[in-house]
Amino acid sequence: MLDGGITVGAIIGGSKLMQLWGEAKQTFGLGNSALLKRHQKAIRQRWEAKARGDWVKEADLNAADERLASHLLEAIPPAKDLGLTIVDNQPYPTKAARMIVDRLALRDDCRIFRMEGEEGSSRTARIFALEVLEASLEAALAEPEYAQKLFPWFLADIGRGVARLEKKLDEGLGLQAKHTKALRENDEKIFERMVRIEKLLEGHVEIPSSVLRETIISELEALPGSTDGELAQAVIAFKLRHDRLLAQVRRIKTFDNRIASIKASAQEALEEYDHALAARLYRNARQLLNARTAERARESAEFADAEAQALLLEGDWPEATSVWLSASEKLRPFDVTAAGMIAVQCATELFYRGLRLDGGELEAADAVLADLIKLESTHSHPFLKATVYSDRGLVLSRLGQRSDDGERVGYIEDALTHLTEAEGAIRKEDFPLLWAECRNRHGSALAIGGHDEAGEKAIKRCEEAIDAFRDAREVFAKEGEDLLVMSARNNTSGVLAMLALLKNSAKIMSEAVDEARIACNFFTENGNQIEGADGEENIAILLQCRAAMEPTEIAIKTLEKALEHAEKAAHIFEKEGATFNCAKARETHARISTDLREHLDE
Question: Contact 85/78 with Cβ under 8 angstroms?
Answer without folding.
Answer: no
